[in-house]
Amino acid sequence: MGQHRGDEGARGVSKxxxxxxxxxxxxxxxxxGWMKLRDRISEQGTAAAQTCVEGDAVLDVSADPDIAIPLGxxxxxxNDTAPVVRDHCISVTVTPAPGTAVADSLATxxxxxxxxxxxxxxxxxxxxxxxVNRLADHPGLVSGQPKxxxxxxxxxxxxxxxxxxxxxxxxxxxxxxxxxxxxxxxTASGLPGWGSLRLALPTGPQSEPTALAAxxxxxxxxxxxxxxxxxxxxxxxxxxxxxxQLGIGSAFLAGGPPANTADALTALAAQTDQAAGTxxxxxxxxxxxxxxxxxxxxxxTFTPTGAxxxxxxxxxxxxxxxxxxxxxxxxxxxxxxxxxxxxxxxxHDQGFRAGDSERAGADAAVPFAPVTTALAPSSGAVSAALxxxxxxxxxxxxxxxxxxxxxxxxxxxxxxxxLHNTATTLAxxxxxxxxxxxxxxxxxxxxxxxxxxxxxxxxxxxxTGPVAGVxxxxxxxxxxxxxxxxxxxxxxxxxEAAYRAAVNGYASDRPNSLLLITDGPNDDTSxxxxxxxxxxxxxxxxxxxVRIDVVTIGPNSDTATLxxxxxxxxxxxxxxxxxxxxxxxxxxxKLLS
Length: 593
Fold this sequence. Notes:
InterPro entries: VWF_A, vWFA_dom_sf. The chain is of the alpha/beta class.
């Protein structure tokens, strides 16, 4: 009888699936273990970095003194976060430093030659971008585009009564020069007994608001709008006139202008009789006035109409090369920290504008009003030129220019003739001469006007006055643009005639001069050097002093005689090597002003 298969015993379980399952478990465990090991390695790497395996590094920050105090507090807050850059533990120190001093030291391009306050910085925060712009000739020194950490518009600090009156009359930046130069301008504006606007314009270190205010005046006078002010606008007669009037008024304040903005604010607040005080106003940042008022200074702010200059306190990160890569990166990281919204309140508490909101806590004296139109900053060169006019005002004077147009002036220098170069340079300098000046133009060679070796192209008179139906400036420009070389050089006879005319036409309210520009010796034997010197001495009048200034171009065997001529009249002789270099313009500009 057959047997059932079950009778042969139970069937065995297949080993294949079991082995596959075990293998899968082992793979999963291996992957999990690898991931845990990877995470541990990563954590160990992070921990190693946090232990600053490269050691400590100090980030030195040079900051304008006005913002250095809140920056010091923010630096301590940043240090508490234990920042690490490239395996270095970073700590930040802030040194107060005037922007001009830092800029001058940075311009050396070598940290070994650092002469500014404190250690050489990796991060620089001056009061304004104009100060950073002074380093335009040193590309690569600043890394990237500096970002504004905090801002403060430039205003005029003044006694409340004066600030209110100027605000009510909607006084603009372009009006300040007239208020400064007119002895009774404020009296006529409704403030009896105040006289003129005694606006102090400090130009020493820590006087950046003066430079910013000068740009605002230049923009308003030249029609530059929101700017930036160009080099051509800065050199124009109206701008030079306005800034010179402001600078002269500041220079003649009793005791001279204070050394810097802070000293001016202190002196202004200390006056018991504001109307009769030594000064009436000073350009300052809104923040500086706010801080002064916290010590009971009782000053008010006035914002002239027109584009408003703003102290933007840019964070300039110095590039690797000036400092090492670690500190340069740390500077960028700290600058980003300062821009975080939670840091704004610390800056607000010191009177700065920061973040997206206006500073809270405005009052009647410092209202923190919105800036309608901000003035775009000019280049470093333009800003320096404007400030230089304020510090060294161009005085209105009466000058007759006597220009050599002899054959030797046809020599080529550079890309053009000596005469064309000289005429172009002279035209540019006359453009920058203040409106209040008198200027005339004579040329000389031989037989230019019948038997006379000279010709009066534009008679000496006010630059703003008419000549044959056109403005004298235009007449001078046209005459200079049409000159052609002639023949001989009758210097001595021409000097005699021009000097007598200058003495006879003396302007009693300003310095008077004859400016001789020549490139060669006198070759007219009808008048000797001795005769010319004697004739000039005889024509001189101590009650009507006229100085003779001389610019000689290139080698000139007559230099000794011309120098004696200048000396006996109280003038100056300046030799320049060529007509196509900057020395000619600098020399003419100096003698015209």
